[in-house]
Amino acid sequence: MSDFTQVTVTKAANIYFNGQVTSRTLTFADGRRKTLGIMQPGAFEFGTQAAELMEILSGELDVQLPGEDGWRRIQGGESFNVPANSTFSVRVLSLTDYCCSFLP
């Protein structure tokens, strides 16, 4: 899906790591939430309470997920899942556009 309809957009940006990662929150009528964001090249560690689906729309990064010893290369058009109540690390190799869906 490349377009979202009937959503509420939170105007204030989510800004992390001195502006190197930013996103905007979308809330759907049924309560589902997603964020649309950009990550600049760099290394970042994120914590999450909810399970997430991270769709990489463009760009390239390496991700290290909980329980995995190594890094996995992810490119535009690919995605990965993050379990609830966990921490994961990314090494962003090029400007990366992403969509994060918070899963029930």
TrEMBL record:
<dbReference type="GO" id="GO:0005829">
    <property type="term" value="C:cytosol"/>
</dbReference>
<dbReference type="InterPro" id="IPR014710">
    <property type="entry name" value="RmlC-like_jellyroll"/>
</dbReference>
<dbReference type="InterPro" id="IPR011051">
    <property type="entry name" value="RmlC_Cupin_sf"/>
</dbReference>
<dbReference type="GO" id="GO:0004731">
    <property type="term" value="F:purine-nucleoside phosphorylase activity"/>
</dbReference>
<keyword id="KW-0808">Transferase</keyword>
<dbReference type="InterPro" id="IPR009664">
    <property type="entry name" value="Ppnp"/>
</dbReference>
<dbReference type="Pfam" id="PF06865">
    <property type="entry name" value="Ppnp"/>
</dbReference>
<comment type="similarity">
    <text>Belongs to the nucleoside phosphorylase PpnP family.</text>
</comment>
<comment type="function">
    <text>Catalyzes the phosphorolysis of diverse nucleosides, yielding D-ribose 1-phosphate and the respective free bases. Can use uridine, adenosine, guanosine, cytidine, thymidine, inosine and xanthosine as substrates. Also catalyzes the reverse reactions.</text>
</comment>
<dbReference type="GO" id="GO:0016154">
    <property type="term" value="F:pyrimidine-nucleoside phosphorylase activity"/>
</dbReference>
<keyword id="KW-0328">Glycosyltransferase</keyword>
<protein>
    <recommendedName>
        <fullName>Pyrimidine/purine nucleoside phosphorylase</fullName>
        <ecNumber>2.4.2.1</ecNumber>
        <ecNumber>2.4.2.2</ecNumber>
    </recommendedName>
</protein>
